[in-house]
Amino acid sequence: MTEYNTPDYHFMLEAVRLSAQSVQQGTGGPFGAVVVKNGEIIATGSNCVTTANDPTAHAEVMAIRAACTVLGNFQLTGCDLYTSCEPCPMCLGAIYWARPDRVFYANNRYDAAAIGFDDRFIYDEITQLPENRKIPFIQLPCPEAAQPFTDWLNSTQKITY
Amino acid sequence: MTEYNTPDYHFMLEAVRLSAQSVQQGTGGPFGAVVVKNGEIIATGSNCVTTANDPTAHAEVMAIRAACTVLGNFQLTGCDLYTSCEPCPMCLGAIYWARPDRVFYANNRYDAAAIGFDDRFIYDEITQLPENRKIPFIQLPCPEAAQPFTDWLNSTQKITY
Predict the structure, then answer these.
(1) How far from B36 is each of A107, B8, B71, CA to CA, in Å?
(2) Which of A18, B43, B118, B151 could pair covalently with B67 via S-S, beta carbons 3.0-4.6 A apart?
(3) Nearest residue of B to residue A161 by CA position?
(4) Smallest Cα–Cα separation from B101: which of B56, B58, B159, B38?
(5) How far apart are the first and last CA of chain B?
(6) Phi and psi at residue A42, in whole multiples of 5°?
(7) Which residues of A carry out catalysis?
(8) pLDDT tens-digit profile of B35-74?
(9) pTM across the whole model
């Protein structure tokens, strides 16, 4: 049961407003997102894949990047993400790397599929072995690739993430 | 059996060189990537998560973004991606949205886990139901969210991706 007069709902409405704006202004798909910290929106994002010529410019990725810039950090500890639609696998991965506390979404993956955004295909591909994917993922063993990994392991100056 | 005197290997060595440079210069994790079209490297990327304060700044994402800028397109049709390590789920998602023809990788997910990059956790989380994930994904149904989806479906000016 959704409570309609809560801070959560207020933040979600802003994400939805951004999703509507994206369609109206022709900047990209119907998706918006906001990042909230301590009860305030600190960053927003909307889909601009086709206008920025950036296939990674989904609303969640844009909002995460913007929030990290605001915070001067590569982590979103203590933040919540509100997105107008359930994140695709790319955005889910970005969320796990950014590590916000919680994610709220309005439309779900079935709603998205109904308007032509079939994330299911990517979700299915992820679980396939690399060599069985529709886009072939081919391991090209390279002895030289081991050294940078060893260097990283041995580095005393590295910043882990 | 890897052939060591091929264009594929040459491109991979450049991705590996970028991964080594990233550690040496302290710009980020030991990962590099290049995008190739018609036998030429058109864009490169290396991990700069901790210096750019951008959790999405993985080598593959950086290379994909750069290649799309070069091509003035949000698709990498006719391109191959060479990456020094098997892509994480975020990068895999980005690859599916960018749609290159093929992906080549050197180190694999087990090599990455051995130096502290355990993508397995994210791969496992993706297959969980949203409400069962370690980062809670909470659906907040919002009647207002349906309209932008309908607007998108009915738009005659939209650019699909």
Answers:
(1) 37, 10, 12
(2) B43
(3) B50
(4) B38
(5) 37
(6) -105, -15
(7) 60
(8) 999 999 999 999 999 999 999 999 999 999 999 999 999 9
(9) 0.96
